[in-house]
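Reply to dn_fold:

You asked what the input looked like. This is it:
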Amino acid sequence: MKFALLPLAALTIMALTTASIARADDDAWVVRFGAHVVAPQSDNGHLAGMRSSISNDTKPTGTIEYLFTPNLGAEVLVALPFEHDIRLNGTRLASTKQLPPVIGVNYHFMPDSTVSPFVGVGVNWTHFYDSKGRGALQGSHITIDNSWGGALHAGLDVKINDRWLFTADVRWMNIESDVHLNGANIGKAKVNPLAYGLSLGYRF
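and this is what came back:
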């Protein structure tokens, strides 16, 4: 899976590095600020032989997109750290924080219309940190490997005026990471979340 993502990563990076010379007219940048819910898939795999579940979290997010044509843009997503509880067979036994930046490209179908749907594809890198044991695992050393994966994106831009817009969007991210308890691998957490939310954008 990771090797299959190499062409996608190369395409995305190439789009980002060439964007600044591909379009020189005004209104090429769009900055958005909002909030998103990260909702892991319902089946998060098994850890230490027990069924795991990972909680949702909501945090402020921001994106910056460069439109190197009216239809095609390169985008970077950033966010404040998301925090999740990890339950094994229904009991809260760990928590973790993660940062899931995404770089990608979006295609806007009707950029001159009041309502413009878009779709996108990109690459996600998720950094897990500050993982802690809870309850019966209080004081245990827990680590979760960082993850590389693909990302899909879809949404709607609603134009307020020539500068301001409102965006509703959803992303799917491929996040699967090995979990270690006191140095031993106890399984793979399959997060694979949907991230959905609302943003206010400004074009300049």
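The radius of gyration is 19 Å.
Hope that clears it up.
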